[in-house]
Amino acid sequence: MKEIPPRYTLRVSQSLLDKLGYIADFEGRTKNKELEQMIKKRVTAFEAEYGKIPV
Prior knowledge:
Elements: H1 14-27, H2 31-50
Helix pairs in contact: 1-2
């Protein structure tokens, strides 16, 4: 059975959301997938500098 990922509500300005949509469209992704990619890059960069995050 496929696991359902948790939901998270993000509050941002409309202009920032529109810009995210533009970037996502440019990259051929949804806004959700674009955010996921951004988060993964940030976590990777953080762990490269400070070590693995214990979760």
